[in-house]
Amino acid sequence: MAKVPVMQAVVDVLKSEGVDVTFGCPGAAILPLYAAMEDSGIKHLIVRHEEGATHMADGWARTNGNVGVAIGTSGPAGTNMITGLYTAIADSIPILCITGQAVSSKLHQEAFQAVDIVDIAKPVTKWAVQVKEAAQAPWIFREAFRIARSGRPGPVLIDLPLDVQKQEIEWEPALDAPLPIPAVEPHLPRVERALDMLLEADRPLILAGGGVILGDAHEQVRELAELLGIPVQITLMGKGSFPEDHELFAGMTGIQTSQRYGNQSFLESDLVLALGARFGDRHTGALDVYRGDRKFIHVDIEPTQIGKVFGPDLGIVSDTRLFLDALLDAARKRGASKDYSAWVARVGVLKQTLTRPDDYDTVPIKAPRVYREINQIFPPETYFVTAIGLYQIWGGQFQSAHLPRHYQVCGQAGPLGWEIPAAIGVKSAEPDAEVVAVVGDYSFQFLVEELAVAAQYDVPFVIIMLNNEYLGLIRQAEGDAFGMKTEVDIHYDEHGTDNVKIMEAYGCSGRRVFEPGDLADTIEWARKEAVATSRPVLVEVMIEREANTARGIRIDAMIEPEPVPNA
What we know:
This protein is an alpha/beta fold.
């Protein structure tokens, strides 16, 4: 075999693993990798902050299911990536962070920007490793992709000392290929028992979690629901896995991101088939109420997830799609059927009666009205990204999603600032798609510098900002949970920060909206402006400052029964 620069071999691996774009910031300790990428055909977006690179790789990976790649140099570049790694591992997103490092002989001497990034990253990665021998590099990269994709997906980090990057190795790319990913198939007797339990129940629910989307099992969920006539609920991470306009859609249960009819449907159920759901605390609320007298079947690809929050009546370790394929096969072989029509009708009554209004015409604008316009204006094929705060709660309650991977939310870690870089990642994965970032006024400012990346590389998307001029959810927590009166103030003028001027400073554009009647026209203007300018466009919506928290939004709330009409 011919000898080639080791970083050329690494680039060959990246390309063969399906990487066509990377996000990062060059520096002295990572320049050999950048030199190898220069004529590789891999597009590279230079970011303004390494955390932004990780969130871009995250958005890219959530969109196409492949492993997103973020690159940084040594020292603070790696530590800046930790938030992105935490976000990815919390939501089971496969990304690869590549960091440069000081030369091996200087690592024990406190060299400039030398930090043990491997040990720092271990708690927030599936695997963190430093390449110590150049000949190991392509194999370590192959293994990193395998680990990132296997089982419950997640992030990995590879640290590259500068002296290792400069070496040559024997390498022939034509003889290499990605490592196989083992299939996690269900134990068939447990599949049969799951079917028995479904048929024994009178009011079953299918609960589609994020694992349905990650496992590309949304079609099987719909097929099972329609075959047996069982209503389907979703978790926040499963939003989009089942069309919300379907007759069998039964909403979302939770203490914040939920529908009232979803909570009540759940409380009236007697069995839950949970698919790829981790029973997060904002979904379950108080466990004694959540569990009640109902039975649970928990299907997850990661064995240690089963029983982590509570012991199910039946646990099944499996890829969600392979489990559903097996369950559908078993149901058809048996000719399994049961009349759940009364239960479906009951869920339908709840959907018609336990609703929240969204047609407000008052000024200041109420947040639900914004989501009403979003639902009416944007087609189902639109990709949405959103993060943490009251607007995540409102989004879960009011925004409709009909397609998998099209509603993306940093669900567990909830890093402020995620939306702008994530939207860049989504648009990089699907250049022809329409992308919308729904943000809060505070989160907007955390990684606002990444607007420069979108402007530089012609990455257009629409930003819809819900601006209540202060930290709505934090103030709610201060008053409701702790009785505090201290206010965190982020004002600079009568409306807070002039976010339209910020957009203009980055060569982008925006408009501020005060009247609900102006929402639709302004959003349509933004859609056209983004296409015309190939840059992000802001619609800043001034919503009511003292938002009514309403039932189901309090951070210390729990699922509780509500008086509802009978069928």
